[in-house]
Amino acid sequence: MAPLRTLLLGALSLLASMQPAVVSAQNNSIEGWPIHNDGLNSVVQWDHYSIIVNGRRLFVFAGEWHYWRLPVPEMWVDILQKIKSAGFTGFTFYSNWGYHAPNSTTLDFTNGAHNFTSLYTIAKELGLYVLIRPGPYVNAEANAGGFPLWLTTGAYGTLRNNDSRYTDAWTPYFDEHASISSEYLVTKGENGLVYQIENEIGGQWKGSPTNKVPNPTATAYMELLEAAARRNGIDVPLTQNQPNMNSYSWSSDWAPGAGGKLVHHLTSRSQLTDCRKRRHRWSRLISVLLDMRPQPVCFHERTICAISSRGLLQLF
């Protein structure tokens, strides 16, 4: 375990060494890197070094957990207290469309653990930021990736695209989730920090990404989700993550006038069950971390994350 420990400590020491320069530029760019916001407000900003919340830099170190896997709201405070005690600055959660919509005519955000708003109030009490991830698709090793099973009959098209049948299906769920969550964002003095649209979706390009032939159905799908989040009050940065280092990423040079906020990013998961047997995967993860030195980093879903220069937060 000593080499692994040395590797991790080395990476953390590197981050610590960057801190004086980062702190010295609370409201200014560093070495030419500009500070960005989502164009809606300046409450949440970012540059290549960190997220900035209300003028203060923030290192996001977030633990992941899922309320629908522990459908007892009275127990949630205990989980979040443990996350806080472990030294995390926030937590992320997937929602589960299938959990909230067991059939095509039911949408439940109010009964029992279907009402997840206490997560936000507990987070505020504990001083934890919240990274919100509603899907529609979440994977999360859930049945159908969190899709309701009634969606998978074929009646709604091939899914995860701009097919109007699929759009009509996800819109009520996504709209309601965004409307509820919009009341708990940092822009309203609460702790909802960022909002992820979709999850682990590639497909930016048709065929080889080196040819840069845009996939218009994928572009349209992501823009529909972005528009839905915005019209329902989500005014914090939108995020997106990639499944691995081999997928087709969302890039800032997507295509003229299309998908400009969907930017290139990368995920490298450790997927460790035994660090002694798979420490080479940690080596790969830390190598990516070191290569990203000019950018802010955080650990997320056994991954790392950084910020683009284009208005959409990248999760790695």
Description of the molecule:
- It is a single chain.
- The protein has 316 residues and is an alpha/beta fold.
- The protein has a single domain, classed as Alpha-Beta Barrel (TIM Barrel), CATH 3.20.20.80.
- It is 31% helix and 13% strand.
- It is built from seven helices and eleven strands.
- The chain has helices at residues 2-23, 76-85, 97-100, 117-126, 164-181, 216-231, 275-291, and strands at residues 44-46, 51-53, 56-58, 62-64, 90-94, 129-133, 192-196, 238-241, 298-300, 303-307, 313-315.
- The chain has an eight-stranded mixed β-sheet with strand order 4-5-6-7-8-11-10-9, with helices on one face. The chain has a three-stranded antiparallel β-sheet with strand order 1-2-3, with no helix packed on it.
- α5 runs parallel beside α6.
- It is globular and about 45 Å long.
* Number of separate helices: 7
Helix content: 25-40%
Portion of residues in beta strands equals 5-15%
CATH superfamily: Glycosidases
Q: Can you count the beta strands?
A: 11
- Note the overall shape: globular
The parts where pLDDT drops under 50 for at least 5 residues are: 4-9, 11-26, 251-300, 302-316
For the biggest β-sheet, the strand order reads 4-5-6-7-8-11-10-9
CATH class group = Alpha Beta
**Could you name the CATH topology?**
TIM Barrel
Going by CATH, the architecture would be Alpha-Beta Barrel
CA(first)-CA(last) distance: 25 Å
Please tell me the total number of domains.
1
Biggest sheet features: 8 strands, mixed
**H/E series:** HEEEEHEHHEHEHEHEEE
Radius of gyration (CA) equals 19 Å
Structural class: alpha/beta
Mean pLDDT level: 76
